[in-house]
Amino acid sequence: MTKINLPHLKMAVMALLILGVCGALPASALAQDDDSFVGFVQHGRFLKLTPCEPIQQEVRLTSISMETAILPQEEELDLTEYEGKVIVVCGHDGGEWIYSATIAEIASPLIADFILRCYPLILLCGACLERINSARQEDLEQVDGIGPNRSRSLVAGQPYVVPGCVAALDIELLLDEVPDIGDVLRERIVRYFCPELYEQEN
Fold it and tell me: What is the mean pLDDT of the chain?
């Protein structure tokens, strides 16, 4: 019987979590452990990849708890040995610092490469879905071929959720479920709200 490497399995799950959470769900639907963060170490700082934000945030790590009445930098974690690596950090988010921080996991090179390659595309898809999900009828009617009836159908279908979205086609296929929206209109809608997805593919 093959043994399962639990640390590697955990990191693989975190990688899939990034795909699913960042690219698929509206912010109100996120159900993620508030005390665990996946991120990338660069220039000695921790660049958070989860929770997902439109702008990536660089933070510092300290072993000091939030309640301790001393400066966090007095017990700042030295991340030199993790430079260029994807890691999982456990701790409490305090804005510019993660308090009571510990390094829980280091990604294998394969999983790290997977996360770093997919993450920019996931962010683009997530931002695209947010724009489409927040579009009103009058916004949708700016798209050539979308009139009052079609815009009502599109608004009725919100919010749109695409698990593991990494390309414009993923969103186009989802819109296929909306009545009277064919291939041409699907692409027009996504191109109107998310031109950067097509630029990324070229």
Answer: 79
Cα angle for residues 50, 130, 164 (degrees, 5° grid): 55
- The model's confidence at residue 193, banded by pLDDT at 50, 70 and 90, is very high
Q: Is residue 129 part of a domain?
A: yes
Residue where a domain stops, chosen among 50, 81, 111: 111
Q: Does the pLDDT at position 3 exceed 80? A: no
CA angle, 116 then 121 then 126, to 5°: 120
For residue 7, how far is the Cα from the chain centroid?
22
Tens of pLDDT along 45-62?
998 877 655 455 789 999
Are residues 62 and 134 part of one domain? Answer: no
Is residue 1 in some structural domain? no
Q: In angstroms, rounded to a whole number, what is the distance separating the alpha carbons of residues 61 and 125?
A: 29
Domain final residue pick, 111, 146, 165: 111
Residue 148 has pLDDT above 90, yes or no: yes
Alpha carbons 21 and 173: distance in angstroms, whole number: 19
What is the reported pLDDT for 33?
47
12 and 78 within one domain: yes
Asked if residue 29 is part of any domain, the answer here is: yes
φ/ψ region of 92 (left if φ > 0, alpha if ψ in -120 to 50, else beta) reads: beta
All residues at 6 or more sequence positions from 9 whose CB lies less than 8 Å from its CB, including other chains:
none
Name, in order, each residue with C-beta under 8 angstroms of 55's C-beta and a sequence gap of 6 or more. Answer: none
